[in-house]
Amino acid sequence: MIEPEYKSYAHAGATRIRWLRCIRPLSQWRLRIAVAIGMTAGGLSNLPSELNAQVAVQAVVATQQPGQGTPAQGAPANAAAGNAGAKPSPPAFTATTIEDKQYQGKDAEFKDGQLTIKSDPPQTVAMEELQRLVLAHEFKLAIDWIGQKEVDLVQIGAADGGNGVRDVQLHVTGLAAKGLKQVAIVSKPQFRVWRSDVKNSPYWKIAVERVGQASVAELYFEPPTRDLFETEIEVTFTYDDNSNSKATVKATSHTNDKTDPEYPVEKLATKVNRVATIYAQGGDLLNGRVLRGDSENFTIETSWLPQLEVPFGQIRGIFFDGSKPEVKTKFDQQLAKPGEDDFVLVLSKDGGIAEISGRLQGLSDGSLRITYEGQQRSIKLERVQALVLGHEPSVRSWKGPFQVFRMSSGDLFSATLQSLDEKTLKLKASWGVDVDVPRESVVELTGRNTRMVNLSELTPLTVEQVPYFDRKMAFVKDKSWNDRPLKLDGKTYSRGLAVHSRCILTYDLAGEYATFRAIVGFEEEAGDRGRVVCRVIADDKELFAKPDFRSVDKPVVVQVSVKGMKQLRLEVDFGEDEDIGDRVIWANARLFRE
Fold first, then answer.
1. With a cut of 70, which residues of the chain have pLDDT below it?
2. pTM for the whole thing?
3. What domains are defined for the chain?
4. What are the pLDDT digits (tens) for 482-508?
5. Quick check: 56 and 143 in contact, CB under 8 A?
6. Over 144-189, what HEC string results?
7. Are strands 204-209 and 192-195 parallel, antiparallel or unpaired?
8. Looking at residue 482, what is its pLDDT?
């Protein structure tokens, strides 16, 4: 690969670069040597110290194998990252039924409450039988030049804030649904580099506006002294899994690094619009900007909808991006046990966090209005860190199957699918509003209230957890402890319960279900000393028992009839060897209706 060779020799100066040129054909090295010598002559202090896949300079020096062209602007991320060979496109739709049958096809149709996957032959799945539908998208990374607008978020170097000079704006589409670790912009003619993370580096800062893991983003950077007009700019995005993608854009307007009397500082936007995570009923999560709100509705701008009206009663809490770390702990505690009053965490003038309890009146024009201590007061939104609403939550009463839609931004939105075409999914929210969502924004939908219900979706009627000594390990849903995946005998499961002896979970069945199924076994890290008593009981009738279940035993498939039963109890009790290694997983614990 060229990256290690270039890193090794570029810093050594032009002499070694000439030697390196001799070991490859001149046609492959002429441009790279010219650029490298320019780097040496122009001063390496203006360029990244590491010329690897994580910075934009790779676009200049990336190796081209014989017969391999430079990735074009807007090429797919995997092609732009230099992967050899074209990969086959994944199926656009992959549907999994409640019986774990899987169908794949390039297209799908939704009609009369049934989803048809255009496979060969076509396969139709009723929504009450649908466990999951995955939508694959071939995003193409592209960058549009916006130019200098009325925004001033950054300045020369790494200092925070603007300097009165309008920033250059780039509009990005086609980002992967991952977190960003680094963004790097390079202007080769300028020998200038900008980065989003400038820690321990001399580079200029980039401001990034992106909602969650959305496919779109805005980049802002300080213009250099020399006009960028008709200059080709290269941008590389490094994601949190260390993969990367890159694209180029040509400056189509002039730039100026001076203050402009037509755009005085007071007319410039000097702060990135605050993004918040809205915690809604039923586990929904919405990432976006809270535009306004009152006692009836909140209006939220998400990456997939410019304006989403959410009833006040559907919102549990709002956490603002950039809040202090200790705020999240207080927010989570309050969200778990909200009080009667609304609860607001505010940044005080001395830098501390103040707690305010009262009644929220509304949110608009950059301020939050709340009544507390008998008076209505206004708090600047930039000081608000988080809020938890203390109202009685409205209860969603889905009468039939519904779906949880996972967006590319990471949002979770509960609704029912109404129609599907090549560009749009039409959804109906739980409060009756129709919502049109771009198809490319949806990456997965999961069936809820279908003929099959995962036990992890239900809240236990009672929970009994008794530690053998003093340490109690609470049961966990859909993961193991320390955020590890659920694994049994080398296989990973996405749904299930992880429990530690002694744990008894009781669920209300209300006579709705016919069958309970699960695979029960020990977590792989339990070692060889785990030993428990495992039972499944319904209405005081023992349906399954493993009185001496050991961690060296293979997982066991459980399938029992619960037809007409009112309650289901899962018991994992102490065995003969205290509680060492008593980590048990109920994988794919499911209830089936007839």
1. 1-90, 391-397
2. 0.75
3. 1-42 (no CATH), 142-267 (2.60.40.10), 276-388 (no CATH), 453-592 (2.60.120.1060)
4. 888 999 999 999 999 999 999 999 999
5. no
6. EEEEECCECCCCCCCCCCCCCCCCEEEEEECCCCCCEEEEEEEECC
7. parallel
8. 81
